[in-house]
Input
Amino acid sequence: MIKHSQLKAYYLPRLFRTIALAACFSTVLAGCSFQKYVAKPIDPTTNAAKFELKDPSGKPFTEYLLNNGYAVDRLPVQQWGLDELTYCALFFHPSLDVARAQWRAAQLSETRVAQRPTPMLNGNLAHSDDPDPTKKPFAFGLSIDLPIETANKREIRIENAQHLSEAAKLEIAQLAWQLRNNIAQTLTEYEFNEAQLRLVTAEELRRDEVVSIYQKRVSAGAASNVELSNAKLQLQTVSATVNAAQQNKLILLSRLASNIGLPLAKVATMSLSIDHKRPLDNTPSTDLQATALLNRLDIRIALERYAAAEAKLKLEIAGQYPDIVISPGAAYEFGDNIWSIGLSGLLSLLNKNKVAIAEATMLREVEAAQFEALQTKVILDANIANAELNQAKLVLENQRRLLAQQQSNTQRMQRKLAAGDIDRLEMTYAKLEDINVEKNVAIANFQLNKSLDQLENTLQKPLVDNGAAGSKITETPIKLEGEK
Output
């Protein structure tokens, strides 16, 4: 019969050698996979030069348009409207690159938390000064710690990371929508400025005619210098308004360049399509709250953050159950071969992780309160935007009716001028009245377009769903997040 001492003498050295070989092999493999640090300094000069080279007519952007379903027969782009400029922002604006990088970091976090705990290798070496010749002077041992997670902690961490990654992805779409909204607002102001510039330029011509008429009458003694001075002052005021509108045009172009991430020199060469108004019959009149709550990206982000908070709470509850570490090992101690197996774990059963669970519970309540506040704000904003839109419609209809009446009156004055019943000065003032009413129409139209922009931003849904850039932002944000 084989004795216990013989089994011990036979198996223990082999176990020790096996553990040592496995440790060495793991160390060699790990050494082969080491990565080296590669410096990547930032050169501000190069970045500035790269910005100036951005070109909306270049091949990379053209391919991007085609990949996003832009019609081939519309290339090259001749009129840059809201959709085309939105595509520019999605491709060129640097803030989206930041959001994309943050999303990729969140995706890597998913991979990191999915990794299982790494075993640990422990070793020791000792020497004894005991003069006893029957004892060996050296002792050494080797063991491996094998951690085992309990209560599905790994799966819960993965769930938490997935929700945070989805929130980061939606934040790209949220930023893209904000850029689109900024572009729409700038185009609305640019359109209004162009209308103002056209009208005040026409008014300047009429005021110049009035000054010319008064100068002739003063020379003939048919008018006073006071009347001429008043006419000149009015002309100077209008001329100053024309100059202000011309300067404001450059400011709006600069703002547009900032919104789409292109140099001002490139934007100044674009032929802007300022008629980006949505048909009024496409504006939703009912169920605005449901539309907003289903399309708002910030609500979808808030839901993901709440889900992440719930996963965090589940993780802390799972933390009540301690993880286990199994530690098999072998040792040679002063002539004796020894094998061992250890079992360890945190004594979390004593306090049951109460403080961390309470903190995670409170954080979940905070997310729930924030979601409820956001939802309430969206509902109220939708109602306000709809009310402002309806009011803007009524004001525009009223101003158009007044314009039609004024134009009818001007036509009557034109017939009187032809019949000799009025002079040219009265006719010029009648045309000035036309211009004043047209200004009111332009203001009312501007307010209507602002209301439409606000309603679209509140709903985060284009009022005309034709599959263009605005729809893709909210419906398929993943396509807008990919590499250029």
User: Anything to note?
Assistant: The chain has 14 helices and four strands.
